[in-house]
């Protein structure tokens, strides 16, 4: 299903600043981001496909086809499919295509075995991460509109699903609020891999957005975010793009320090309280996960 996009020039305001996104400039610099239709190669399957009595929490994890070792470790640790304090937790790995044909065949086998791969036919790249945001929203809207909550993150971080569910129960009552590490009006970079040209975006600041390292949002926001994604030009930085969608959808943020998107020195009790910690590779993941599960710490 590929509903027609209605991307156009938009003016958005957050009360502090106004942001003008000229669709003609986006077509000039990033035409593929604006024209891509979300064509699926692999889709997940399993218990989440039908409504259950338990609310569904999807752990959506951005991953590259080449990183099969990371996915294998995550399935054995924090991304295992299971019940957590009344929530059914289901991992879905968000992937695109790689150049290696053998790796793509291995992905098919991995998908058949685990049923947790969602793959589109665009090529993995830094700017194409924004397509994972847009296409995931489209897939959710049409296939799992009843999802209760979603966690978005990466395959190189430690996540505590028990702390996430506890956080949802304590702070997740608002149907219009997204949760994560808030980046308020970050400065636009004109250099490095995050560079954005003045022609594309002549302003100096972005609207507020949550760090792409990991954040939470309720299923009630999916339709609003998806509708915004049909109208807003696809910005070539995924976390900024999601910030624009959030602004267009008139949603709010809740900042939470326990989203450690810049990493955290290892301390078992701090890790037990954390929601996520960025920068944990597969060589340490199992050890950390097991130690944190066993640790007895005061709240």
Characterization of the model:
- With 299 residues, the protein is of the alpha/beta class.
- It has a single domain, classed as Spore Coat Polysaccharide Biosynthesis Protein SpsA, Chain A (Alpha-Beta Complex).
- The chain has ten helices and 14 strands.
- The N and C termini lie far apart (47 Å).
- It comes from Pelobates cultripes (Western spadefoot toad).
- GO terms for molecular function: protein N-acetylglucosaminyltransferase activity.
- It is a single-pass type II membrane protein.
Précis, in short:
By secondary structure, the protein is an alpha/beta fold. The chain is built from ten helices and 14 strands.
Mean pLDDT: 94
Number of domains: 1
Number of helices: 10
What is the CATH fold-level name? Spore Coat Polysaccharide Biosynthesis Protein SpsA, Chain A
| Low-confidence region ranges | none
End-to-end Cα distance, whole Å, is 47 Å
Coarse structural class: alpha/beta
Text of the CATH class: Alpha Beta
Secondary-structure topology with pairs:
Blueprint: E1 10-13, E2 18-21, H1 23-29, H2 31-35, E3 40-42, E4 56-62, H3 68-76, E5 82-84, E6 87-97, H4 101-114, E7 117-123, H5 129-143, E8 149-154, E9 157-159, H6 161-171, E10 177-183, E11 209-218, H7 222-229, H8 238-248, E12 252-255, E13 259-260, H9 268-273, E14 276-278, H10 282-294
Parallel strand pairs: 4-6, 4-8, 6-7, 10-12, 13-14
Antiparallel strand pairs: 1-2, 3-7, 5-6, 8-11, 9-14, 10-11
Give short descriptive properties of this protein.
14 strands, single chain, 299 residues, nine-stranded mixed β-sheet, three-stranded mixed β-sheet, Spore Coat Polysaccharide Biosynthesis Protein SpsA, Chain A
């Amino acid at each position: 299903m590929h509903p027609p996009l209605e991307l156009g020039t938009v003016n958005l305001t957050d009360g502090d600043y106004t942001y003008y996104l000229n669709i003609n400039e986006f077509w000039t610099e990033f035409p593929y981001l604006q024209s891509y239709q979300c064509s699926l190669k692999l889709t997940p399957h399993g218990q989440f496909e039908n409504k259950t009595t338990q609310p569904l929490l999807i752990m959506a994890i951005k991953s590259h086809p080449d990183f099969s070792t990371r996915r294998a470790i995550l399935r054995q640790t924090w991304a295992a499919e299971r019940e957590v304090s009344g929530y059914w937790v289901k991992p879905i790995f968000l992937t695109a295509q790689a150049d290696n044909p053998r790796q793509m065949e291995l992905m098919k086998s991995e998908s058949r075995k685990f049923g947790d791969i969602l793959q589109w036919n665009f090529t993995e790249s830094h700017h194409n991460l924004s397509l994972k945001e847009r296409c995931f929203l489209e897939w959710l809207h049409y296939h799992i509109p009843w999802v209760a909550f979603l966690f978005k993150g990466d395959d190189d971080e430690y996540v505590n699903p028990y702390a996430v569910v506890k956080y949802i129960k304590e702070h997740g009552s608002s149907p219009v609020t997204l949760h994560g590490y808030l980046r308020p009006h970050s400065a636009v970079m004109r250099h490095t891999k995050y560079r954005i040209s003045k022609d594309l975006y002549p302003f100096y600041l972005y609207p507020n957005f949550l760090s792409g390292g990991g954040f939470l949002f309720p299923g009630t926001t999916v339709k609003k975010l998806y509708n915004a994604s049909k109208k807003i030009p696809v910005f070539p930085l995924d976390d900024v793009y999601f910030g624009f969608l959030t602004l267009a959808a008139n949603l709010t943020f809740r900042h939470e320090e326990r989203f450690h998107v810049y990493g955290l020195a290892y301390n078992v009790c701090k890790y037990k309280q954390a929601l996520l910690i960025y920068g944990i590779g597969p060589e340490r993941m199992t050890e950390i996960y097991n130690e944190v599960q066993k640790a007895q710490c005061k709240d």
